[in-house]
Design brief:
Radius of gyration: 17 Å
Helix content: 25-40%
CATH architecture: 4-Layer Sandwich
Structural class: alpha+beta
Number of strands: 13
Shape: globular
Number of domains: 1
């Protein structure tokens, strides 16, 4: 298994975009295109992960609140525990995904609470993660909070994690067990047939007055521009291009936020 982890605390230059890619997957991160206009603990509290194995690809993004620590803890938990198993051939069946995803949310939540210690108010984070299984032709996803899981296919771009009934929730907000976190999260699956790309992004892409009013259009534009590149460069071009577009939106609106994204290029 090959992994990459982008930590917000290591990417602090305003307006700069850093990226990493391997095979069909890429990550991009930025502090943002303009200073944050709201109270915050650290300049960049977002993070992203990919894990690439023989059986599939895991991607995850986290948007930390009250500091970068919770985002890092959640991503490192995914990288070190479920990802090595999930990316082995035949290790995950869609029928068991809801149970496995809920257990991972519970364990990551517990790790954040342990990191926080005795403090009643501490760092917390969103977490969106996805597992792409090419042999099974399926995408499995789970998301808690307002980070996103977008699938681009012939029908356009849609946020698989969007649920009108979901309330604001974070990992690290309380000692919730798996069944409670499952109710707070969006957990599901989607076929890979006809899919162009999977895109995970933090709310630096969508926050009102900061990001895009039509994030689907921004994602489509980034994918269209990347499609002009050689196949091997398309994931990197798409991830970097989307983060750069988000930073440009921040500059236009003179209000910024951290932005992180992960792209898995699915089309041949």
């Amino acid at each position: 298994m090959r992994t990459a982890l982008l930590r917000g605390r290591e990417h602090l230059e305003l307006g700069a975009v850093d990226a990493v890619a391997e095979g069909p997957v890429a990550l991009a991160i930025s502090r943002g295109g303009a200073p944050k206009g709201y109270a915050h603990q650290d300049p960049n509290e977002d993070g992203a992960l990919f894990a690439l194995g023989a059986g599939g690809v895991v991607v995850a993004v986290a948007d930390g609140h009250r500091g970068f620590e919770a985002a890092e803890v959640a991503l490192e938990y995914v990288a070190n525990h479920p990802a090595p198993h999930w990316t082995e051939p035949g290790a995950v069946r869609p029928a068991s995904w809801r149970r496995q995803a809920s257990a991972v949310l519970e364990d990551a939540n517990r790790a954040i609470l342990v990191e926080r210690g005795e403090s009643e108010v501490g760092p917390r984070t969103t977490l969106s993660l996805a597992l792409v299984l090419p042999a099974e032709g399926v995408l499995l996803y789970a998301a808690i909070g307002d980070s996103h899981v977008y699938l681009a296919d012939e029908k356009g771009v849609r946020d698989l994690a969007a649920r009108p009934e979901r309330k604001a929730a974070f990992l690290g907000q309380d000692a919730a067990l798996a069944e409670v976190l499952e109710a707070r999260a969006a957990i599901g699956e989607a076929p890979l047939a006809g899919a162009r790309a999977l895109v995970l992004a933090s709310d630096g892409l969508t926050e009102q007055g900061i990001g895009f009013d039509d994030p689907g259009r921004a994602i489509q534009d980034a994918l269209d521009a990347a499609a002009a590149e050689p196949l091997a460069l398309r994931p990197l071009a798409a991830a970097r291009g989307l983060a750069e577009r988000a930073c440009a939106s921040h500059r236009r609106r003179r209000s910024g936020d951290n932005i992180v994204c992960a792209v898995v290029w699915l089309a041949e």
